[in-house]
Model the fold of this input.
Amino acid sequence: MKKLILFALCLSLAAALFAGCGGGSGSGDERHITIAGKTSSEPQIMVEVFAQLIEAKTDITVDRVMDLASRIAFESTVQGETHIYPGYSGTLLINYLNIDIEPGTTAEEIIDMARAGILEEYDLVLLPHVGFQNNFGIAIGGPFAREHNIRTLSDLIPFSSDMVFGGEHAFFDRADGFEGMVELYGLNFRDTVMMDVGLKYQSFAQGIMDAFVIYTTDSHIPSHDIVILEDDLSFFPTYYFHPVIRADTLARFPEIGEALSVLDNLLTEDDMIRFNHMVDSGQASVSAAAAQMIEEFGLLN
Done:
C-alpha cells in the first residue's frame, strides 16, 4: 500500500510539473509536444537528440522534462502528459507488458513482441531502434580473464566457486537477473555483495568482488581493465533503444516519424559509451553532447 501511495504522489508531482511547463495534452499551443526524460545520461542525451531533430526539421515546439524515474516517464506518456518516451525493448516487455523472455529469444522477436504489445495495451508506437543495445553484461578483471582464457560465462563456471559476485540490489530481484543467470549456467559463486550502482567499479578496484554486472554502454568501461564475458547461452534479453511515441501524436504529427528516421540503426554501443562519457565526465552538457552527435553523423544534412 505504501508503494502505491508513493507512486500516486510521484504521478501527481509529475503532472504538476508538466502542467507548469505547458506539456500536457491540454496545452494551448497546437503544435507542441513534451518529451519525457529519465535520470541517467544515456536517455537524456537521446531525448535531447529527439528534441533537437524535431525542432530543426519541423515547426513543432518541444519541451523536455528530465530526471523522471523510468516508470513515471512511461506512465506520463501513456496518460498523455508527455508524448515521446525513451524506451528499451526488453524493459518494455518485462516491466510494462509482464512478459517473461525465454533465454535464446532473438532481438527481432523481442522487438516484434514489444511493438505489438505496447500498441495494443497502451496505444504507443515503437519506432525503429537507433542501433545500440544497453544490455546486462558480466565483467571480470582483464588480467584474470587473459591468464585463464575466460571469454564466456560458460568459461567462468569452474572458477566461480572461488569468486564473489557483486551488483546493484535490483539485479538480484529481476527475472532476467542473478538467480536466473546462475541457474542456467550452473554458476556457484562463493558469496554475493549488493551495492549502489555508482560504487561497483570502486568496489571491484578494492577487491571486494571478483565479477560484477555492468551495463554494456556504461561510460566507465574504457577506464578499467575488465573483460565483459560473452553471454554464450543467450540468457540476457536484448535491450535495443527506441523512441516510443503516442499513436495519436504520431497520427497528428507524422513529420515526427520522418524527423527521427535518420536515427534508424545509426549508433553502436561504442558510440554511446563515448557520448555517455562526455556527459558523465563533465566534458559536455547533455544538450552539447546531443548537438555534437547530430553534427558528427550529419543528421541535418
Observations:
- The first helix runs from residue 2 to 21.
- The longest strand covers residues 136-141.
- The chain has 13 helices and ten strands.
